[in-house]
Amino acid sequence: MLKLKYTCALVLFFLPFQLMAQGSTKTARKSRPVTESALIKNYSDSLAYFSDSIYRDTVSVRHSFSRMDTAPFFLPLTFYSNVAHRAFGINEKLSPVDYQLLKIYLTHPELVINTQSQLIALGPVIAPHTVTENPTMVIDKTAPQEPEALPIDVVVLKPNFWTFGGDYYLQFLQNYLTSNWYQGGESNYSIIGAVTLIANYNNKQKIKWDNKLEMKLGLQTTQSDSIHKMRASEDLIRYTGKLGLQATKKWYYTIQLLAQTQWARHFKSNSRVVQSDILSPLNINISLGMDYSVSWFNKRLTGNAHLAPLAYNFKYTDRLALSKQNGIPVGRHALNDFGSQVTIDLNWKIGDNMNWSTHLYGYTTYKRSEIAWENTFTFQFNKYISTKLFIHPRFDDGHPRDNKLGYWMFKEFVSLGFSYGF
After folding, report:
1. Which of 13, 179, 345, 400 sits between 20 and 30 A of 159, alpha carbons compared?
2. pLDDT at 152
3. Bigger pLDDT: 49 vs 252
4. C-alpha–C-alpha distance, residues 373 and 412, integer Å
């Protein structure tokens, strides 16, 4: 009811002003002359063009309005009671915004959607929040701080210049023949085991010391030997030590010590005569020369070659009866001589499951010569099972000459069994 009273009062207040404005407009339209000359028309057009703000580059602003003043024109139309109170006030002066709002309230009341009391009930206006896709992070620059001194135990680790390695295997061989086999022969069983240990020192400052110990023992049984149930077929104890000083990238000045003997007594079939024994013989060779490090075929073929123009050889036999057989004068235990020496040790990984290792030893005093060439071909079936082919030709003119082979000797065997390298 109160709202209706305010609305009627506003209509009665602004109705005279509206009628006066319409009357002045009609009078102005009627007083305009009907005919105008061309000069006056052009002049009038120029004045209209000058006075029309649409054709101007800049427009002067008569009143400055803030965003809050002009906001009611762009928001859903609302009836503000404050505007009506100021219109009926005695000393109040309407602003241009209030005047336009009152004009809209009177001429188009159907456009009013909200009232001021409804807006107050909804609460204050929520400030807009601007969201950026990649907000800028402002990080304060902090001055570097020195860490506090804490007690720290300093541990100095000495470098390890040693490398260790080796391999071992245990393999078997069985051969069975009937008594009437057309080629003859006899059945036999054999077993062979070998261990190789390596310990090398290299201080990375041109000094190296290589150590290699090889031990091998093979046993066999034959039906034709009625005296021995088991005899040694393969027997070796050999130590190789080298102390080198690097001369170039591949060459070393080297002193080499080579010592070799065996484990057990050896007999011929159906004989009690000892053919060889531990320390019978014992060979010790000391040489001075150059070592060449081999690393070929993308490191698949590795090893070294020792060339010594000066070598001292000491051969000893503990059994005097074996002196002549080992090239030592009869009645003497030892033989000393000087000569030159060549030693070559190579290992070639031919394929993923095939390997060849060789040891070539040559010594000469220009009166006698000794050459031994050991070759081992390993066929690896898996990590632990392999078969080996061993071929060992040997030349020694210090031994008595054989009627058929002369000073040449030959040994060969094939075995199958367990093997492991580390």
Report:
1. 345
2. 77
3. 252
4. 12
Is the C-alpha dihedral spanning 321, 325, 331, 337 positive or negative?
A: negative
Joined together, the tokens standing for residue 99 give 């005047």
Residue 257 has a CB neighbour count (10 Å cut-off) of 14
DSSP string computed for 312-332: EEEEE-S-GGGTGGGTPPTT-
Ranges of each domain in the chain:
1-30+66-123, 162-421
Distance CA 38, CA 128 (A): 58
Label residue 289 exposed, middle or buried (CB < 10 Å: 0-12, 13-18, 19+). buried
Sign of CA dihedral 82, 83, 89, 93: positive
Residue of 275, 286, 285 lying closest to 317 (CA atoms): 275
**Per-residue model confidence (pLDDT) at position 233:** 87
Orientation angle between helical segments 96-107 and 67-74, nearest 10 degrees: 10
Contact present, 216 and 193 (Cβ < 8 Å): yes
CA distance 366 to 348: 32
Tokens 């367990």 sit on residue: 418
Decide if pLDDT at 62 tops 60.
no
For residue 199, CA distances in Å to 39, 40, 202, 213, 242 come to: 124, 124, 10, 9, 11
Q: Which amino acid is at 420?
A: Y
Pick the closest to residue 184 from 153, 237, 223 (CA basis): 223
| For residue 172, pLDDT beyond 60 | yes
Contact indicator for 349, 355 with CB cutoff of 8 Å: yes
What DSSP designation does 264 have?
S
H helices present in 181-310, as ranges? none
